[in-house]
């Protein structure tokens, strides 16, 4: 009895396996590389009923990602409009880190998707590996699109005259603050760094935690402030924060900023800031534990989201620029063409044009609170009413005079990865700011 | 006196182990019913009410049900295939002397040592070349391979405890090699297979890195990927994240409890061989 | 018997050999071959001889720290971890009232994926709202806010505690083996008046030589793959306090984009592991039948 059961079990299992492998091979997979498909398709089918060109696209904007809604809407509207010409095969990659890893593995195998988001150094890998197609010709053919992106955004993604990616958003980043706490401490957003420091002291005296900082992951909320400290520190600092791929971090501006950040981490932040992830910092601010958080407008939606903030919290939030009337202003790397055949390249261009054109920018603004690159795209009245802070942040941004980029957008990806180990080292006194700066320089030199 | 001291030590040890194992699990279970604010302010306390909104939210955000089905398929077939192949190999390696055995054992031991990060790119190439990219069968084969060293070690060390007389008497009765393996060896090795099976199933159920590299579409993705839908950059909802964690964990616990009973019932069979 | 069975032996081994070639051999060849090259994503490898290895052994502090940590963890895991699991298995094998419950519960942390365990401990040990500090605050010190994972004094210890006590796999492996010990052996020992402790020490444990050796190898080598929990909790920090070789391999490949160098670390890791496995195999005379 028992023996026969084992035997039948095994027979059954192998039969099922066989059946599965056959059916798996039989069903043509939708995610096949668009390249081969497109080429074969155009040869065989009559021009009247041309099958849509398949292009592959990987996105990390899924799940709880702040831009998940906007991504979904952009793809939906693209399909409605161009679905019969281009079929976008979307691969969802939950978590940004997994996305970067996967693209790098694909690039190492020479197999990149047709449309690629070039963030976190992916653009460098693709450019160096000759795996991307520049946009110059496409843009020259379409003046309207070129205008919708604007000179500045295009320039930020140009290397040696070639435009490698099209930016889909401008990141204008200041910081949010809790008006109630500011009032109780008797302060207003600081105009100088001295005032910023004395504000912290006053907030602390009033019983509040001044800043929601974090050093885990990519140290995002801390590094925005670090960037502001460097960027506002004279001409050299400004130049540093506007240079792509700095290789020398051993500068007086960096060291000074690191020392200030050390003080902030020691005295003016939550107990868990060292090692904390974005979630910890965001919650510290949204749950009314900390008075300030540096972050961009995509966070605005969270303030009126009952799962993330308490009722009426959005009324308490103000937005401010950094001291010296300055602001972080970065163009995202945006989208690149990784497609290999002319058909898929054209299709990829069409998709990217939709995402980055006026329509795409409008969707991004309305669904993701993402700042458009074009000044033609303005928030709708409904949006303005829903998110007054959005309007406030646009006004604040317009008033600022000094601009610099985020650290993540200028440094090599291995430097971005290093902060989470270096900040605790700095705060524990195991390394001085000078030593950390030296180490950053060494890490940047390791990048290939 | 000494005996009493030993007993106190023993129960203390057991209690500590149980607390260390159960504590984190219960903490997450409680947290999965809490709101974000409750988790942050009242981390040890009871949730204000047992709301299932975190769970419904979790199912809404990630394609959990689809991933579930895939994980079950990959888990079951990855385990069966692994046990069948490795059972055969381990039996031969544990029982017979032949040329190249040492070399083979050495090579198989290597598979325990190759760092996963170094295998990402080569395996992607292999799987893609074989046309198994983005197919469940591809994941099944890869996981069957990942379980190679552990199953081999567990099974061959179990086979070594079986007295040789068992097979010799079978051969005397005129049983063939294959019959002996399937009818005599397999049934009395149930505890060994049970343990190896549990390990292999957990590997299939929990693996993340290769699952994301070797698949592209939701039709061939597994459950661990669902967890990552809740920890994107700029995501901050702990409650939903814990609910999703529970959704992923609970089936494996159930499977373990069920399989474990199989192992236990096999223990009686094991006693026969003395 | 041997001659007659040669065909069957081949038949039984062949599928596993094919599997090994598919999953591991290709990776091994690429790994070994490219460790002598300068290779990064998107470009083809260029032969540079031993340069990667020279740099590795002469001029790489992170590598040294990672190797040291990996070594310590392998040592801890193959001794303390296995000892905890074995001891627990022997206690459970007495089948007192709680044994089934305790055995099941002990497995829980091992059932959960590494990333989830990491996330769980990260929250449990959060300095602000984590359960551990909250308990500490209940018992007196109201300001207690130890940053377990980021304080130099506790980081290594905290990370180690996320896996060292959880030896359920060792326990179930050994339990299965204890079940195979004939009851008659116990009975005759009891008739001779031996205490439980003596029976376990002189009869049971020696009979477990093979499986304990297996556990030592499996537990020890699992530390050569440990990555997700560390990445989730400390990320190798503070500084490089909790960096190990797998993380270092991952970082040099995917962050520094230096696949060639990363693979030379991989080759070192494999060599290190081989020595460990061979040592254990000889120490425990694994593979020889015990009766």
From TrEMBL, chain A:
| Source organism superkingdom | Bacteria
Organism of origin is Paenibacillus silagei
The molecule here is called: Raffinose/stachyose/melibiose transport system substrate-binding protein
Q: What Pfam families does the annotation carry?
A: SBP_bac_1
Keyword annotations from UniProtKB, A to Z = Cell membrane, Lipoprotein, Membrane, Palmitate, Signal
- PANTHER family from the entry? ARABINOSE-BINDING PROTEIN-RELATED (PTHR43649), POLYGALACTURONAN_RHAMNOGALACTURONAN-BINDING PROTEIN YTCQ (PTHR43649:SF33)
The residues forming the signal peptide are: 1-26
TrEMBL record, chain C:
**Do you know which PROSITE patterns this protein is assigned to?**
ABC_TM1
Among the Pfam families in the record, one is BPD_transp_1
Q: Which family does it belong to?
A: Belongs to the binding-protein-dependent transport system permease family.
Cite the Gene3D superfamilies for this sequence: MetI-like
Give every ABC transmembrane type-1 domain span. Answer: 67-280
Compartment annotation: Cell membrane
> What's in the keyword line of the UniProt record?
Cell membrane, Membrane, Transmembrane, Transmembrane helix, Transport
Lipid bilayer topology: Multi-pass membrane protein
- UniProt-listed PANTHER family: BLL4140 PROTEIN
List the protein's name.
Raffinose/stachyose/melibiose transport system permease protein
